[in-house]
């Protein structure tokens, strides 16, 4: 993987991230394909219509169903799904906790029960990497010990202790795999990249400590390829999130990509691009689409509202997406009210286009040295 910063404007960065499968221009938003599928969309929609270069798939879900061994047998995620861009896979630790109240972490990993059939499983730093090697994802997230907020200082300290321990184990294991015959068990582990996850709640000193340790961590000549900020958007306010990110980023390596996990609204993205974040993911655009909430240049729009029943205009007059170029608000209102499945596709195409285009416009503004103007215009439209 190669990452280059091509332009900066204050703290905002425009870069280029090269993996084995695609060139990703940053800032970048990764649509979420939890089970190796963006809900209601397929590879053609993602590649040919939206032009997405990277999507996120979920290690926990794919480990349970259909199983990483089957995905490996069928050619890895790229052949299995026919999406030829890049895949980022998370470690599955968040889902092990969020989907099972009986999940329990110890010093070596996480024990949980499948939400599908109740079977018992154990995730370790090595096992989640083995799953991701088999999936052939381009970017692999390591196992971390996340904590919901608010949390006690003692729990956050334990989270960091485990996260750092597991990070070193992950890095050592990845180094051994790419340096030995173990690499032959997989597609080509040398082309797969490993990202660490910074924890610490909203405690600035704990974030500083965790970020500094992960940034310096190595196994021989191997360092983490990128650094992610996890454990946010889990109960804290937006202001706390922004302050935590501002306090964390100075202790990350500016030459490696910075990924903010699971965030968020268009406002969250713009604010964190301004603070120096390069990569984002969130279920919000597709989940909101299925519920009838569409993102536009002027704010959110609820298509279920009766006032759209005979509205001939497009969802967003400034949008050039597949949906806006073809269909009226009235038609989309009808599809939603009638429960037509085609609504999910058209609404998801629009919302994802909005998010991807927001990244494109932010990037263009950074390169031109006009990010401040972009930022002000973004909010001015919402106030109007």
From TrEMBL:
It comes from the Bacteria. GO terms for biological process: tRNA queuosine(34) biosynthetic process. It catalyses: 7-aminomethyl-7-carbaguanine + guanosine(34) in tRNA = 7-aminomethyl-7-carbaguanosine(34) in tRNA + guanine. The keyword tRNA processing applies. One of its GO terms (molecular function) is tRNA-guanosine(34) queuine transglycosylase activity. Residues 10-382 form the tRNA-guanine(15) transglycosylase-like domain. Its cofactor is Zn(2+). The active site is at residues 90, 281. Pathway: tRNA modification; tRNA-queuosine biosynthesis. Coiled coil: none annotated. Substrate binds at residues 90-94, 144, 199, 231. Residues 262-268, 286-290 are annotated as: RNA binding. PANTHER family: QUEUINE TRNA-RIBOSYLTRANSFERASE. Homodimer. Within each dimer, one monomer is responsible for RNA recognition and catalysis, while the other monomer binds to the replacement base PreQ1. Belongs to the queuine tRNA-ribosyltransferase family. HAMAP family: Q_tRNA_Tgt (MF_00168). Catalyzes the base-exchange of a guanine (G) residue with the queuine precursor 7-aminomethyl-7-deazaguanine (PreQ1) at position 34 (anticodon wobble position) in tRNAs with GU(N) anticodons (tRNA-Asp, -Asn, -His and -Tyr). Catalysis occurs through a double-displacement mechanism. The nucleophile active site attacks the C1' of nucleotide 34 to detach the guanine base from the RNA, forming a covalent enzyme-RNA intermediate. The proton acceptor active site deprotonates the incoming PreQ1, allowing a nucleophilic attack on the C1' of the ribose to form the product. This is Queuine tRNA-ribosyltransferase. It comes from Candidatus Campylobacter infans.
């Amino acid at each position: 993987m190669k990452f280059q910063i091509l332009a900066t404007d204050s703290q905002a960065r425009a870069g280029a991230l090269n993996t084995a499968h695609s060139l990703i221009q940053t800032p970048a938003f990764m649509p979420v394909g939890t089970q190796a599928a963006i809900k209601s969309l397929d590879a053609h929609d993602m590649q040919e219509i939206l032009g997405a270069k990277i999507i996120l798939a979920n290690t926990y879900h794919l480990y349970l169903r259909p199983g990483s061994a089957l995905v490996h047998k069928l050619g890895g995620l790229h052949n299995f799904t026919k999406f030829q861009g890049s895949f980022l896979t998370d470690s599955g630790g968040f889902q092990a906790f969020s989907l099972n109240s009986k999940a329990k972490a110890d010093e070596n990993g996480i024990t949980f029960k499948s939400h599908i059939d109740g079977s018992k499983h154990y995730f370790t730093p090595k096992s989640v990497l083995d799953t991701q090697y088999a999936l052939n994802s381009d970017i692999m997230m390591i196992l971390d010990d996340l904590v919901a907020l608010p949390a006690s200082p003692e729990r956050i300290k334990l989270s960091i202790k485990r996260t750092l321990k597991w990070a070193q184990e992950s890095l050592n294991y990845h180094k051994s795999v790419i340096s030995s015959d173990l690499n032959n068990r997989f597609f080509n582990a040398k082309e797969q990249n490993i990202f660490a996850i910074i924890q610490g709640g909203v405690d600035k000193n704990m974030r500083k400590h965790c970020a500094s340790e992960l940034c310096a961590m190595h196994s021989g000549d191997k360092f983490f390829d990128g650094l992610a900020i996890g454990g946010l958007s889990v109960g804290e306010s937006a202001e706390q999130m922004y302050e935590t990110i501002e306090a964390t980023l100075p202790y990350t390596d500016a030459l490696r990509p910075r990924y903010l996990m699971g965030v968020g609204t268009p406002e969250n993205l713009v604010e964190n691009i301004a603070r120096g974040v390069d990569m984002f993911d969130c279920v919000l655009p597709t989940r909101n689409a299925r519920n009838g909430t569409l993102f536009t240049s002027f704010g959110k729009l609820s298509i279920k509202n009766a006032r759209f029943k005979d509205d001939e205009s497009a969802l967003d007059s400034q949008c050039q997406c597949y949906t806006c170029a073809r269909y009226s608000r009235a038609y989309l209102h009808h599809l939603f009210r009638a429960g037509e499945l085609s609504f999910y596709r058209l609404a998801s195409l629009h919302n994802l286009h909005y998010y991807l285009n927001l990244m494109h416009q932010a990037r263009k503004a950074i390169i031109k040295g006009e990010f401040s103007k972009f930022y002000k215009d973004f909010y001015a439209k919402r106030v109007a």
